[in-house]
Prior knowledge:
The chain is mostly beta strands. 0% of the residues lie in helices and 52% in strands. The protein has no helices and eight strands. The strands form two sheets. Strands 1-3-5-8 form a four-stranded parallel sheet, with no helix packed on it. Strands 2, 4, 6 and 7 form a four-stranded parallel sheet that branches.
Amino acid sequence: xxxxxxxxxxxxxxxxxxxxxxxxxxxxxxxxxxxxxxxxxxxxxxxxxxxxxxxxxxxxxxxxxxxxxxx
Length: 71
């Protein structure tokens, strides 16, 4: 993982070149995840959020998003 946060995370107008894991809630606006990642088979979790996810105007590349709360 490129980013590993135990609590909450909020980012705007940014990107993470690798996979992202957030233990709490995540709020992303204009945010891109796993830009430099490699497509894998089977698909991997590129974004993991333990709580709820708010995601506006962004994308998860080369993988899936797994959310424990609401999305």
